Amino acid sequence: MSGRNEEPGAKLRGFLSRHERRRPPGVLAACLTLAWRAMLKIKHVPFQMFDVTIMPIMFTLLFTFIFGGALAGSPADYVQFLLPGILVQTVVFITVYTGVGLNTDIQKGLFDRFRSLPMWQAAPLVGALLGDIFRYSVASTVILIIGLILGFRPQGGLAGVLAAFALVLVFSSSLSWIWIIFAMKVQTPESVMTTSFIFLMPVTFASNIFVELQTMPDWLQVVVGNNPVTHLATAARSLMHGEGDWTAIVWVLAYSALIQLVAVPIAIYMYRKER
């Protein structure tokens, strides 16, 4: 009797032993898979592309034609100064979607599912950041096309434009880690959006994105001159026009490194300990 009871178990163990256990995905594979997921979310929620496409066009056209004559003598002259700044403003603004997407996953329970999977725990965060590169690229392309139509001519050529975009990408990716922290502290995606814009509006508008630093009062020049976005706009502008302001570039890299040094460990710790 006991022999007959052991036989089915032995057969089952023999059957299972023929199949090797699938190995967990590597760090790169997990990050790229979740980056692809972030891009697919745009397909299913196309409204997310509104800020990436329509807003840059509106800002570029409005500021070029409304303020161009007063600030630079003509819209064609002003767009040479404005367009790198609009690129910086747009990409900095859309960094908030990293936090919004993470908070949405938390509210829907996907967060717990990701944590239960046999993969690198930080992959959902890094994958979301990699997916956002697509948003940044689309926004930058739209802005450059509009600028070229309006007469923007980057003296630094394609190399200068790509270098400026790479620098904006480095800073924006580091800034996204701050919104990841916010996403794990507030209750709704709307709260992430509201909180981030309370910070982003003064930081972007109190900069040299739209006007030269020298046109401001002395006390304001001190404040605006130490704004990270001011250094980023100056660096991007200099690279696009082939000048290369290395002081501004170093400041941007230093700010980016400092933000990541502080924010990344906090964000990963909070992600692991969340609920």
Helix/strand layout:
Elements: H1 2-17, H2 27-44, H3 50-72, H4 75-94, H5 96-108, H6 110-116, H7 123-150, H8 157-183, H9 189-205, H10 218-225, H11 228-240, H12 246-273
Helix pairs in contact: 2-7, 3-4, 3-7, 4-7, 4-8, 4-11, 5-7, 5-8, 5-9, 7-8, 8-11, 8-12, 11-12
Write out key terms for the chains shown.
elongated; 275 residues; single chain; 12 helices; mainly alpha
Residue-averaged pLDDT: 84
Q: Helix count?
A: 12
Q: Can you tell me the overall shape?
A: elongated
Main pleated sheet:
none
Give the number of domains: 1
**How much strand?**
under 5%
Distance between the termini: 51 Å
Give Rg in angstroms.
24 Å
Low-confidence stretches: none
Please trace the helix and strand order, writing H or E for each element: HHHHHHHHHHHH
Structural class: mainly alpha
Number of strands: 0
Helix content: over 70%
Write up this protein.
With 275 residues, the chain is an all-alpha fold. The chain has one domain (25-273). Helix content is 79%, strand content 0%. It has 12 helices and no strands. It has helices spanning 2-17, 27-44, 50-72, 75-94, 96-108, 110-116, 123-150, 157-183, 189-205, 218-225, 228-240, 246-273. The longest helix is centred in the middle third of the chain and has 28 residues, at 123-150. It is elongated, with a radius of gyration of 24 Å.
